[in-house]
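Kindly go through the following sequence and its backbone structure tokens. Advise at your convenience whether the structure tokens fit the sequence:

___
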Amino acid sequence: MRRPIRPSAEKLEIERAAVTDDFLQVYAVAHRTEDALGLELTRSAGHFMLQVLLSEKAITRAVTANPEFTVPDGGIVLARYDVDHDRLTTFPMTLTSDSRYFLKPKYRKIRTITFEGHGNIFGGDGNVSLEFEELPLGCVRQPYAGFGLNHEYRFIIQALERIEGVSDITLCEDFETTQAEGTLRLPYDTLDRWRRAIRRSHNTAVLFGNQSKQTYLRGQVERELGIAGSAAQPQDLDALATSLASSLAQTGRKRPLGVAAAALKTVKASARELVEADPVDLLDLSREIELITLEDLIARLSLRIDENHAEAFWQKFFLANPFVLRLAFGLPVILFRDQVTVGGTKFDGSGGKIADFVMKAGLYGNLGIIEIKTPQTGLVEARSYRDEVHAPTRHLSGAVTQVAEQRYKLQMDIKQKKVDSHQFDIYSYGIQCVLIAGRNPGDEAKRKSFELFRNGLKDVIIITFDELLAKLQSLLEFLKDDGDAGRCSHAATDTSE
């Protein structure tokens, strides 16, 4: 067991040198200045626990605000973080020591809010940070604020508490909401859609209220001070109601799949006859389907890269669309497996390295590793290191080291994994590593620095989300041009006959 680090006032970061592989390690993370309330981080294998440390000053303030306040017997757990599954579980509570609700749960029924794929406490430089800047918009990110949702979105919690038997919420990258054993799995997209609707409604109401105040004061000033002016028009309450209803409405468009499904069944049933009767028409139909599918994929990727999604979302997106991953390689490859354990497991079961995707060369079976980050991952520092020279961010350099270590572990353990898995047609002659992260860096100086950095790497290829999108768009243009050329050639043949 490692001795606690000397505490500092509200310092919520632990230097990399202080993070060890000890099974049990205790950190004194921070003490709040106003009441000396402390936050302590404890590590046990791959699990971290953030606890509240009471101080005499905080207890005195709590008793003054609530004479019935009693010091809890056990530890006061504020959050837990599971490294292996990248899950942050928070226990929203009031941490204002002069409040009569000090240390009480924030909500009537909801006791925990868990974030899957968000809230990683490790930065790219290996430091432990408890700033929680990756939590979704609308969520309380400051530990001393007790986690939970921002006050303006309390109506979301109130609505969820109406669901019978739900006491825990897990925010996830699922595509639909599910409920089981007291836990509601709520997609990040759903929460964000509700949050934006509430924000639009709030802004509409505030704008209407401000306009009403201006109208009232204008009329009063003109009447009481004798200032001539045009009569102010009263606010239209019906227009307000319409605007509020519009801001909260989440209208959707149901796809007319009935006719399309029937047509598809007809084509499938007649495929053999179509090949024999008119193969050119069937090829044209196949090309049109490919173009529509590709256009839809481009539209979805364009939309998603502008949104703030966690790595788990992008892993599911690429798993559903492995064709995009194949564009990252210069050779024909196929998806071998996702979330592959590449090695590094210690005797206590911790420390296993997991690659997001492992690809296999279609002809030779040589493996390649793909590590997925998010479009919001910074590539180069905003401030220049020297004149027009920008250093790579800690997130980018950390990700490069991460995928390089995965490559090393896989090469070390490949023989045993082939035996254990009874799969011998895979090889690690020269494992190619691809890192998909970030957007185009910005101005010319940043682009130059980024290009110099990534082209200087020996074993890792870095591709931005914008470049993946550009590859898809180029492929679409190629297919369209090729199709037009083919149709022109076909038409010319018909004319000559």
Remarks:
- Residues 188-224 form the longest helix (37 residues).
